[in-house]
Write a structure and sequence with these properties.
Strand content: under 5%
Number of helices: 5
Helix content: 55-70%
Shape: rod-shaped
Amino acid sequence: MDIEDDLSRLLGAGADQIHVPVQTIVAEAAHRGRRLRRRRRITRAVGAVAAVALLTGGVAAFGPDTARRGEPPATDRPSAAAPSVLGPTDPPVNGRVATTPAGLLGIFATLLPPRPGSARTRALAPPRTAAC
């Protein structure tokens, strides 16, 4: 038992001589934590910007071709079918007009380009003159 008491006393004396700089350790850990969080935020932001740029570039490079080649230019005249498709609208509420689903369908139909050979294309085409 004598050895255990001596060992305990020696370890206690050695522990009293060790001075751990707790404040320095905590300050350094807080500094490293802030740096790590900042790095993670920057990495996420750069990744998000890169993803948006990649998607935008992909759509621009490989997206649908919206150029209408060989079709006549659109005119401001409404379609002949538009008045029959448009439904009645309610009176304006707070400056907005409520439309029916059929009315919205008519609005969208007038915004579509005419198909070649359709009645709408023939109605919008300039009249033909007799060739001499």
